Amino acid sequence: MHERESAARKSTIYACERDKTRALTLQQMVRIAGAEGLVTIEACQDFLRVNPNQPPWNGVGALLLDPSCSGSGIVGRDEVLEVVLPREAVIEASKPQSKKRKRKLPVETGRPIMDTPEIPEKTPFKEDELPVQLSTRLTALSTFQLKLLLHAFEFPKARKITYSTCSIYAQENEHVVIKALDSPIAKRRGWRILQRHEKISGMKAWEIRGDLQACREVSEAEDVEKVAEACIRCEKGTKEGTQGFFVTAFVRDGEDQAAQELLEEEEEWEGLSDGSDGS
Ligand SMILES: C[S@@+](CC[C@H](N)C(=O)[O-])C[C@H]1O[C@@H](n2cnc3c(N)ncnc32)[C@H](O)[C@@H]1O
């Protein structure tokens, strides 16, 4: 087996979901996808409360952040085709059969293994929201989104982070990205944006990039264009047939000096407390 492939097979995906109902949905979708052996679901786990320096989190190499957002990019129910979630029978039928077992599985039993549940976000987007209400909500959301991103920056072994929203607002997108890049933790740990030319081909070729004007609203950096170019936007109502979406990625190279120092400091403290608390 190829070395990278074998390493990937040994990896575990930890999926944090704070909401109990959504964690159940996640569990069902993981099972239907046949990924139970790969994914450990941390149900009712607030990501902000996990300690990046404790196992298993101190071994995490990559994070995918898809936080709660305004949902302003989501196309209304009456505007799109119905999306049907996978059914177990269909998935089973599409799996390659072993040569010995020629027996065919039923292609469709008609009974979905799960209903397609309503998954309301806690903060649904309201088209008729007043500007003041919207602004207050965006401030709260973007504060939370930035907090999440800065927390992700703290994982000592992490080298890649993706950040995505289904929001059309720069406040939740480019502004969060620029504030994150300007943060002391990003600078200390060497986090930078994954530039357009470094991205995989599809992401590199996608024409709709981040909003440069919006980037300039919060950054005076000369190379702010690179940040805008490194962001990907999808718009609703365009020929691409997408919803409103935003995604970008952060990377860093090399050893994490700060994390190593922190670990050493913690070990020293643990050593001290062993002797002093009498336990
Ligand atoms: C935009 S949804 C994305 C969910 C999933 N990626 C999907 O595409 O269906 C954001 C999810 O993050 C969860 N969430 C929000 N804050 C969280 C936190 N602090 N820790 C863990 N999960 C959180 C919400 O409950 C919600 O299910």
> What gyration radius follows from the Cα positions, in whole Å?
22 Å
CATH architecture label name of the domain at 128-272: 3-Layer(aba) Sandwich
- Name the helicity range: 25-40%
The coarse overall form would be: globular
Mean pLDDT score:
82
CATH homologous superfamily descriptor of the domain at 128-272: Vaccinia Virus protein VP39
Family: Belongs to the class I-like SAM-binding methyltransferase superfamily. RsmB/NOP family.
Organism: Lepraria finkii
InterPro entries: MeTrfase_RsmB-F_NOP2_dom, RCMT, SAM-dependent_MTases_sf
Protein name: SAM-dependent MTase RsmB/NOP-type domain-containing protein
Write structural notes for this entry.
The structure is a single chain. This protein has a domain at 128-272: 3-Layer(aba) Sandwich (Rossmann fold). Strands 3, 4, 5, 6 and 7 form a 5-stranded mixed beta sheet that branches. It is 37% helix and 11% strand. It is globular, with a radius of gyration of 22 Å. With 279 residues, the chain is an alpha/beta fold. It has 10 helices and 7 strands. S-adenosylmethionine (SAM) binds at residues 16-19, 22, 46-48, 66-69.
Using brief descriptors, characterize the structure shown.
7 strands, alpha/beta, single chain, RNA-binding, 5-stranded mixed β-sheet, transferase, 279 residues, disordered C terminus, globular, two-stranded parallel sheet, Rossmann fold, binds S-adenosylmethionine
